[in-house]
Amino acid sequence: MLKKLWPCAKPYAVPILLGVLCAAGEAVFELLIPLVMSEIVNIGIPSADTGFIVSRGVRMAGMAVISMSLGVGSAALSAIAGMGFGANLRQAEYAKIQEFAFSNIEKFSTASLVTRMTNDAHALQMTLMMGMRLMVRSPVMLIAALFFSIRLSARLSLVFAIALPVLAVMVGVILFRASPLFQSLQERTDNLNLVVQENLAGIRVVKSFVREDREKEKFARRSRDLRDTALEAFGTVVINMPLMLLVVYSTMIAVLWFGGQMVYAGTLPSGDLIAYFTYIMQIMMSLMMVSMMFMMLTRGVACGRRIAEVLDEQPAVTDDHADPAAQVRDGSIDFDRVSFRYHAENPQWVLRDITLHIAAGETVGILGGTGSGKTSLVSLIPRLYEAQEGTVKVGGRPVGEYPMGHLRQQVSMVLQQNTLFSGTIRENLLWGNPEASEEEIWSACRAACADEFLKGFPDGLETDLGQGGVNVSGGQKQRLCIARAILAKPKILILDDSTSAVDVATDAKIRSAFRQDLGGVTKLIIAQRVSSVMDADRILVMDQGTVVDQGTHEELLERCEIYRDVYQSQREGAENHG
Description:
Blueprint: H1 2-9, H2 13-47, H3 50-99, H4 102-108, H5 110-152, H6 160-201, H7 203-208, H8 212-238, H9 240-265, H10 270-312, E1 333-340, E2 351-358, E3 363-368, H11 374-379, E4 389-394, E5 397-398, H12 404-410, E6 411-414, H13 425-429, H14 438-447, H15 451-454, H16 474-487, E7 492-496, H17 504-517, E8 522-526, E9 538-543, E10 546-551, H18 553-559, H19 561-577
Parallel strand pairs: 3-8, 3-9, 6-7, 7-8
Antiparallel strand pairs: 1-2, 1-4, 4-5, 9-10
Helix pairs in contact: 2-3, 2-5, 2-10, 3-5, 5-6, 5-10, 6-8, 6-9, 6-10, 9-10, 14-16, 18-19
């Protein structure tokens, strides 16, 4: 874990080192003050030597100023290092997530990744900030105070022989109990964030089905789980404080009892007892700070492990075997005995032994029932997933030989779930091509029939879409996503049921624009409506992960029962509706 996290802290190695030295120096100067005070009590006051008292007083004030200055420096340096470490940690996680394939993200869940980048990273950030001070100051103060205490009275220091083992056992038991609870606490936080994310993303569905009460109960249940786990975890930690205070005050009573007898017997100067009493307080406070730091470390370790899991995760799709100079020659696509499943341990294949050739510039429609493997098939082309068996080729070369960045620039894909980002329409369209001219933008919008509604917006391309494109309808969102894909000028364009929210007339206009403007682009169109693909050069019919037939609309009507049944059912439905 430390090996993975250290690179995020390494740029702040100097502030960390200086902060540690300042914390140690602060503790040392603070510990010297009681020795000077004991000299005043033992020497200055009995002899009524005002000069001696003043000189020692000035020395104590100087030590206090130096200790305070070092403390301020330690606090400032720990803040710089902690905040910088937290920022680097979040940046490292975010960069790693950007490398993930879909399968990697599905392994963690989006909600868990958000928690690890925010809540867990913040916990580690605070652990470093507090650790730079407490984990240095407390041990230094503890060891030095013990040394000075024994130096003042070895006999009286025997009290620690009982107190310290008791404290060690208490802290060990509490840590053993708290560690798994903090791990569970972070998992409960994941679960709560998942409910919030799903609810906010699907708020329209929740309201349309009048399921607000159910969602409230689901949230309340997850929130109660988090609360109960937090109470148990922090309740276990909180027990540490009263137990520590019990031992501390018991030790103080014992020191006062035995020390007072020694002062009365003349074997211990009263000034030494006062200094000893101060060291007792410092020792016990140090132990309390150490135990508190261990509690924080327990949670920090749990959070660190979760972050390390993300940083350790190997992307399922990489450029390890890519040729940096490889260029996509054309839009031809080949599947050579390809089989695919989402998880290696899953015995059921999503795609089975598919062999297929699609020529450059060809328009291919893909039909099939739910779960037939349509989306999985096209997802292998830009390497959103990796085939376990067989080879997928684009432009005559295996897709694994292309750098992913270049391959995906040449394969534009409009997914089933259309996503627009906060910002203007122009900013969203420029995702396809940041260097696109005004004419190129409007040309892509015309091909996607998006210009029809854009001209009606007062601000045109500068219209603010709001979060997730809430200011446009589902059909308008689909057309903007298609325009964005076209603007990338790809050699292969994949539409995964991307006109489902568009009326039949607009769908026909989009297909007509494709034939006219994208003649050299290979187009794969997944659709539920036969009318969306019936004029394609070829139609693939998929069922249970295989291509059961392929051909033109007329050929499939003659020989493919599945296609004929779909066509007739949709035709009858349209006639009945009419």
